[in-house]
């Protein structure tokens, strides 16, 4: 299983970024996917998830601002992040699995400042 994230960077508060993740080495279509983040304090949290059936879930702090999506044909997972806040600063990790999300990429840094 390989997951490679991209799209992070430095953005001002109120700005937008789109994170991308390409998966390989597993059945992408049949897998549940998600985005975790680890902030400067070290706490790791599931930001959003998207099941293989299309069910989405978001942590309260990003509802209405972030949108998760996937393109199974391209084996891509996305996280559109709008109205970014300083507290969104974190390393963002793409994750995959079935039921749980045990497989992670190496992460992409998002800094809102």
Keywords:
113 residues, four-stranded antiparallel sheet, seven-stranded mixed sheet, 0% helix, single chain, mainly beta, globular
Describe the overall structure.
This protein is mostly beta strands. The protein has no helices and 11 strands. Strands 2, 4, 5, 6, 9, 10 and 11 form a 7-stranded mixed beta sheet that branches. The chain has a 4-stranded antiparallel beta sheet with strand order 1-3-8-7, with no helix packed on it.
List the helices and strands and how they pair.
Elements: E1 2-6, E2 9-11, E3 17-24, E4 32-38, E5 44-50, E6 56-58, E7 66-71, E8 76-81, E9 90-97, E10 103-104, E11 108-112
Parallel strand pairs: 2-11
Antiparallel strand pairs: 1-3, 3-8, 4-5, 4-9, 5-6, 7-8, 9-10, 9-11
Low-confidence stretches: none
Class by SSE composition: mainly beta
> Which range does the strand content fall in?
over 45%
Main sheet makeup: 7 strands, mixed
The Rg value, from CA coordinates, equals 13 Å
Task: Give the SSE string.
Answer: EEEEEEEEEEE
- Give helix % range: under 10%
Q: What would the principal axes of the Cα set say about the shape? A: globular
Distance between the ends: 33 Å
Write down the overall mean pLDDT: 97
How many DSSP E strands? Answer: 11
Number of helices: 0
Short description, anyone?
The chain is an all-beta fold and 113 residues long. It has strands at residues 2-6, 9-11, 17-24, 32-38, 44-50, 56-58, 66-71, 76-81, 90-97, 103-104, 108-112.
């Amino acid at each position: 299983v390989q997951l490679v994230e991209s799209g992070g960077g430095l953005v001002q508060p109120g700005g937008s970024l789109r994170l991308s993740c390409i998966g390989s080495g597993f059945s992408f279509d049949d897998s549940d996917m998600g985005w975790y983040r680890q902030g400067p304090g070290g706490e790791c949290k599931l930001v959003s998830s998207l099941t293989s059936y299309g069910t989405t879930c978001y942590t309260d702090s990003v509802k209405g601002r972030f949108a998760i999506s996937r393109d199974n044909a391209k084996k891509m997972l996305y996280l559109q992040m709008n109205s970014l806040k300083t507290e969104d600063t974190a390393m963002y990790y793409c994750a995959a699995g079935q039921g749980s999300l045990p497989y992670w990429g190496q992460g992409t840094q998002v800094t809102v400042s």
